[in-house]
Every structure is written in structure tokens, then in C-alpha cells.
Design goal:
single chain; 173 residues; alpha/beta; OB fold (Dihydrolipoamide Acetyltransferase, E2P); 2 domains; five-stranded mixed beta barrel; 5 helices; 6 strands; 36% helix; elongated
Length: 173
């Protein structure tokens, strides 16, 4: 049974090659097909790469809180301070913005980044856990997520990278 199926497939392949000989086999036809595929890639590829790191938007905590729909699911760069209880809540804040902050979520896959590890170390392992007696700030890049239907509505930055990290641990008494 398998031999009959294989021989049928071989015969079908030979017929197709004979019919296409002279049309698809020519070099100019292959070049045309390659050009069409290349142009199609140029048209389709930008739709899949929207929101990549190349299209990062600089913003502030106040602006993301005031206009969350504008930044929802966009990659943003925010300079801010960090506040944490050292247990489960870490928030990006700006002292000049009285409307609140943006929670910070650090995905497991970027924990090994040296600057992210330094941030985690400053929050959880240097001194007491949390940010009491510490000043931590930096530039945070990540995907902003606005969930207006959560109770309460949530604003979260899914962290992608940290730069210009500054950590100042005050003397404890």
C-alpha cells in the first residue's frame, strides 16, 4: 500500500515538473518571484514590529496616569523614583505627581540582566526589604498596560530594561 502511494506521488511529481519546465524553472521567473516575496515582506513586516524597542516613547509618570489610553500597550521610557514595601508592591513614582504611580512588574526572563539584578538587590537585599531609608531612581523602559476594568483600575509597566540606576541607602539608626 505504501509502495503504491509512494509511486503515485513520484509520478505526480514528475508530471508537475514536466508541466512547469520552461516556466517556473527559468531564472527570470525565479528572480520575479523573489522580488515579489521581498516586496511583500517589506509591506507586512512593519505591522509585526510595531511597538518594538525602536518605537519607544519618552513620557512621565504624570502623563501616563493622566492619559493611560494613549500609552496602553506601548513601549515607554520613564525616568522615575521607585517605592516598594519590600514584599509584593513596587511602584514607579514622581514626587511632583500627586495622582499616584505606576506599578512595576519584572518578568522572570530579565532577572539576570545586571542592572535589573542591581535594582532587585537594592529593593530586597540591601538594608531592610523595601525602600524605607533608600532612594532608588532610574530610567525604566517597558510595555505600559492599562486595565480600566480591573477593580481598582491598574497601571503597570512590564519592565524590559533599566538604565541610569541610582541607589542611595541612608544610614539606619
Amino acid at each position: 500500500m505504501d509502495e503504491n502511494r509512494n509511486s503515485s506521488l513520484v509520478r505526480l511529481g514528475r508530471k508537475l515538473r514536466m508541466k512547469s519546465k520552461g516556466r517556473l524553472g527559468s531564472a527570470s521567473c525565479i528572480v520575479r518571484i523573489m522580488c515579489v516575496l521581498f516586496l511583500a515582506t517589506l509591506v507586512v513586516l512593519p505591522k509585526f514590529t510595531q511597538g518594538s524597542v525602536g518605537s519607544t516613547t519618552n513620557t512621565t509618570i504624570c502623563d501616563t496616569i493622566s492619559n493611560p489610553d494613549k500609552f496602553n500597550n506601548k513601549i515607554v521610557r520613564i525616568r522615575s523614583a521607585v517605592k516598594s514595601d519590600g514584599i509584593e508592591r513596587t511602584v514607579l513614582v514622581d514626587e511632583s505627581c500627586k495622582q499616584g504611580g505606576v506599578s512595576l512588574w519584572v518578568p522572570q526572563k530579565i532577572m539576570r540582566d545586571s542592572t535589573v539584578a542591581e535594582l532587585q538587590d537594592a529593593i530586597y537585599r540591601r538594608g531592610r526589604p523595601g525602600t524605607i531609608g533608600k532612594e532608588i531612581s532610574g530610567i525604566f523602559v517597558g510595555r505600559f498596560r492599562w486595565r480600566p476594568h480591573d477593580a481598582p483600575p491598574t497601571r503597570t509597566l512590564v519592565l524590559m530594561s533599566v538604565s541610569d540606576l541610582k541607589v542611595d541607602i541612608k544610614a539606619t539608626q
